[in-house]
Write a structure and sequence with these properties.
mainly alpha; about 150 residues; about 0% strand; elongated
Length: about 150
């Protein structure tokens, strides 16, 4: 049984989200071994609410993409979705590069981010192919019915 591009996209976004959650979890594992993860140069009284909102957005956009990909086949959505995948790939690439300058380098995190980057590139490729495909049967029928009623 062949899996549609929409099914592949949903699967790749799911893998990406699991990997992103594990990336955060991996950063917290030292806590469970009695080690501190606090950056000594950080002000503990600093307002980090903006960081929390950015992280929420970073997680919610793929969740919305999964739902929308499951529910729509619109050409505009396909194009918007493709550019969203490009944005995430660029963000992951920058994250890998910047983490190579953190001391000490946490190599398991780098390895995980490289895997996530590879998943992102696969997501770009499948999304591009889906964007290029003609509209599915349901969209064609909906457009035909709406134009004739």
């Amino acid at each position: 049984m062949a899996i549609s591009d929409q099914g592949k996209i949903i699967s790749l976004w799911t893998v990406f989200l699991f990997g992103t959650v594990f990336h955060a979890q991996l950063g917290l594992i030292p806590l469970f071994h009695g080690k501190s993860i606090v950056d000594p140069g950080v002000n503990p009284a600093a307002d980090i609410s903006w960081i929390l909102w950015l992280m929420l957005g970073f997680f919610v956009l793929p969740m919305i993409a999964i739902v929308m990909t499951a529910l729509t086949d619109e050409k505009l959505y396909r194009k918007t979705h493709f550019y969203l995948t490009i944005f995430y790939t660029l963000m992951n690439f920058l994250h890998v590069v910047l983490d190579l300058f953190v001391t000490p380098i946490v190599w398991p995190q780098i390895a995980l981010m490289v895997i996530l980057l590879a998943v992102g590139i696969l997501l770009n490729l499948v999304s591009y192919r889906w964007m290029q495909e003609p509209l599915g049967e349901l969209e064609w029928m909906k457009k035909w019915i709406s134009s004739h009623t």
